């Protein structure tokens, strides 16, 4: 017997319709590449996203056709999110920090029909348009009078002229909620990038779960600033969660330095921000240098790579801001776990609480996870044993776009994350490493994240990466690569002394090297593969 409730498909268009009907006045504030601050609201975004839909209809795009964006966080990008998906096409967000060749490769692989870009990226587009064989319409995200005449790019139109010709009187089509909605490519540190293709259903379920109190706790009283780009796993789903709850959105555009982000947070009453750890280094440097506090910001979501406990502590003790440490991946839409305390943990002394907050947190409803040993046997949740982390759920990938790489799932429909982790009795996940970053010393594993977290608590250290270096006796030994804070002084011996008593002796790095900068990938994560290549010949004092 079936239930007797109405059967409405979970479509992304219902999010913007809901926001426009119930929160038309809630603001969407954007720092534009033009430099000014632009103010819009859900009512306007809904109307203009319908104009986007009309423009795509006029081009004759079919359901499921891909429309790419190469853009910062801003209101036009948000309109594209809703207009493209609402009309049944697929929004393909491309990371502009990739090399031009990679961007062209991805656009061709996705068979993008339209590519919309911020003017900042005009030089990239000038270099690649000839190679993007499927793109038939280029759209510059600007006013008609800002479009240079002599770009040489065929079929180029200014966004405002493009959508200006369309009516906002548009009825969203209805279709199967399992239809494709958005496409994101993984960064492809090994081999070619692969596409994760989200559906309307997976996106809405992810938005519901992400908005829950023990996840990101989104509400109509929030003012949300995603520093995490809309091209990095849909800004972790925040644009959808914000529309669902009617939260104000504040978009930083291209101005991602500490001062610009801080000024925006204060001016727009931001209550919650989100980003990878490296972006908060700039913000905290700025606030520390100028003795600044946050008037309204009370929580910040940090994920994408391990958030150093020193950063969580600094936010808590100096700024009264709670860090929500989150873990996920492109293949998971991306949310998997978020770290919020259970009742008994709220009573713990501050230091013990910090140890919990430094973990990646508990699974949000919808994500089922387990850890297994090398033979696939499930390991206990004892907080001690670590193994390969597997996940499954309705917003986790079942196969890559175009079937690339074959079936990624193992028995039981589990997706292997490539992460090594432990889970404690309270269900808190702790990522030890990415499996390819683990350091194998004499048959024992050393967690590079543990070593880095300790190094980051040293007052002279701005950023630290712990990598494996080949060793004649132990196979591999850890080397600590350190970027110092401006004007800070420290010797390798001083840094190493800082590890005493904090970690087993054999886990302490064999050596420390100082560098001017640590290479960051397109999403702001440390590129340890590059460091391993750079230091593979490093002569360890123990070798
Ligand atoms: P890419 O490698 O393509 O940038 P993702 O952005 O999807 O892919 O990165 C997912 C990976 O990032 C995870 O598998 C994990 O290794 C790492 N990661 C994400 N969040 C955290 C976190 N809070 N702590 C440690 N590692 C994390």
Account of the protein in words:
The chain is of the alpha/beta class and 543 residues long. Among the domains are: 13-255, Rossmann fold (3-Layer(aba) Sandwich); 439-534, GMP Synthetase, Chain A, domain 3. Helices cover 28% and strands 23% of the residues. It contains 16 helices and 25 strands. It has a nine-stranded mixed β-sheet with strand order 2-1-11-10-12-13-14-15-16, sandwiched between helices. Strands 7-6-5-3-4-8-9 form a seven-stranded mixed β-sheet, sandwiched between helices. A hairpin with a 6-residue loop joins strand 14 and strand 15 (335-338). Helix 1 runs antiparallel to helix 2 (42-58) and helix 1 (13-22) crosses helix 9 (238-245). Adenosine-5'-diphosphate (ADP) binds at residues 186-187, 189, 303-306, 325-330, 334, 360, 417-419, 431, 434, 523, 525.
* Binned strand content: 15-25%
Cofactors, ions, other ligands: adenosine-5'-diphosphate
Bin the helical content.
Answer: 25-40%
What's the name of the CATH homologous superfamily of the domain at 13-255?
Answer: ANL, N-terminal domain
């Amino acid at each position: 017997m079936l239930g007797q409730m109405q059967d409405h498909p979970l479509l992304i268009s219902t999010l913007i319709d809901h926001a426009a009907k119930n929160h038309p006045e809630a603001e969407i504030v954007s720092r534009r590449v033009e430099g000014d601050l632009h103010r819009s609201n859900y009512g306007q975004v809904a109307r203009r996203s319908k104009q986007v839909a009309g423009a795509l209809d006029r081009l004759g795009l079919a359901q499921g056709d891909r429309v790419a964006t190469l853009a910062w966080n801003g209101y036009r990008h948000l309109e594209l999110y809703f207009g493209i998906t609402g009309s049944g096409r697929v929004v393909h967000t491309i990371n502009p920090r990739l090399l031009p060749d990679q961007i062209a490769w991805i656009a061709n692989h996705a068979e993008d029909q339209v590519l919309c870009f911020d003017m900042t990226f005009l030089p990239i587009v000038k270099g690649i348009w000839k190679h993007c064989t499927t793109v038939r319409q280029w759209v510059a995200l600007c006013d008609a009078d800002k479009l240079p005449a002599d770009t040489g790019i065929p079929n180029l139109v200014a966004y405002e002229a493009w959508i200006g010709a369309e009516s906002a009187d548009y009825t969203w089509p209805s279709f199967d909620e399992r239809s494709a909605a958005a496409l994101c490519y993984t960064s492809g540190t090994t081999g070619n990038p692969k596409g994760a293709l989200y559906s309307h259903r997976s996106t809405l379920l992810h938005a519901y779960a992400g908005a829950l109190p023990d996840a990101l706790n989104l509400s109509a009283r929030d003012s949300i600033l995603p520093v995490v780009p809309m091209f990095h796993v849909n800004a972790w789903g925040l644009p959808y969660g914000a529309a669902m709850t009617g939260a104000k959105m504040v978009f930083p555009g291209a101005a991602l330095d500490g001062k610009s982000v801080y000024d925006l947070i204060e001016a727009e009453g931001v209550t919650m921000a989100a980003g990878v750890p490296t972006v908060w280094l700039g913000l905290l440097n700025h606030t520390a240098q100028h003795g600044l506090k946050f008037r309204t910001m009370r929580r910040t979501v940090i994920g994408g790579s391990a958030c150093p406990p020193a950063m969580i502590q600094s936010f808590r003790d100096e700024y009264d801001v709670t860090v929500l440490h989150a873990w996920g991946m492109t293949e998971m839409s991306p949310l998997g776990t978020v770290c919020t305390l259970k009742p008994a943990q709220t009573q713990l002394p501050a230091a013990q609480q910090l140890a919990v907050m430094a973990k990646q947190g508990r699974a949000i409803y919808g994500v089922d996870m387990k850890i297994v040993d090398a033979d696939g046997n499930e390991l206990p949740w004892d907080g001690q044993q670590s193994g390969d982390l597997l996940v499954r759920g309705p917003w986790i990938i079942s196969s890559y776009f175009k079937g690339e790489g074959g079936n990624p799932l193992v028995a039981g429909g589990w997706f292997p994350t490539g992460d090594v982790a432990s889970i404690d009795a309270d269900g808190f996940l702790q990522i030890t490493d990415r499996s390819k970053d683990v350091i194998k010393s004499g048959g024992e594993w050393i967690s590079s994240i543990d070593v880095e977290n300790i190094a980051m608590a040293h007052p002279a250290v701005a950023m630290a990466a712990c990598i494996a270096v080949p060793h004649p006796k132990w196979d591999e030994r850890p080397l600590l690569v350190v970027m110092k804070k401006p004007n800070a002084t420290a010797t390798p011996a001083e840094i190493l002394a800082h590890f005493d008593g904090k970690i087993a002796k054999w886990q302490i790095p064999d050596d420390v090297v100082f560098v001017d900068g640590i290479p960051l990938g397109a999403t702001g994560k440390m590129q340890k593969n590059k460091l391993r290549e750079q230091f593979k010949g490093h002569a360890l004092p123990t070798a």
